[in-house]
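Predict the 3D structure for this chain.
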Amino acid sequence: MGATDRGTPRNVRIAIRPRPRDLADALEQLPPAQREAFSLLKLDGMSLEVAAARTGISVGALKVRAHRAYRALKKILGGND
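Done. Predicted structure below.
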């Protein structure tokens, strides 16, 4: 039936939100540029264009920093994949 040993179907991803303190601790472990990109986009809710203008970098460079931050946070917080 496509279930794992724990009874959860393989095609179901369960998102577990980190506690605010865990996220704050994880953010502190990021390089400053990645932390800034993540904070502007996800915590402050800025658009890519506005965040890029604010930091003085291109939208492409901001996307790279943000992606690296997401990947690092996933690893720090114990995400799979």
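Residues 20-76 form a domain with the Arc Repressor Mutant, subunit A fold (CATH 1.10.10.10).
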